[in-house]
Design brief:
single chain; alpha+beta; two-stranded antiparallel ribbon
């Protein structure tokens, strides 16, 4: 950080008060590690914050990875094709 007062960590890497607030927002308010199950058609509905998300779907030995971008905070519907 080019502005020492704006940095979230001190030179010794201890976290500053603004860093703690930032970490709280990310970990408790903005982080989403939701686990959901698709319906029989392989469709699932999830809440997504604005940004890029990585989706991992597993069924038996099959794994599908998808990356999606939410243009705003909203519920998204994904067709993963892995029913059950």
């Amino acid at each position: 950080m080019w502005r020492p007062n704006g940095a979230m960590f001190r030179n010794d890497w201890t976290i500053k008060p603004n860093g703690k607030i930032g970490e709280e927002l990310v970990r408790r308010e903005w982080w989403n590690s939701e686990i959901a199950q698709t319906n029989a058609a392989g469709i699932v509905s999830l809440w997504a914050f604005h940004g890029i998300h990585k989706i991992k779907a597993e069924a038996g030995d099959s794994i599908r990875l998808r990356q999606i971008e939410a243009k705003q905070d909203r519920e998204i519907v994904l067709a993963l094709g892995m029913g059950g």
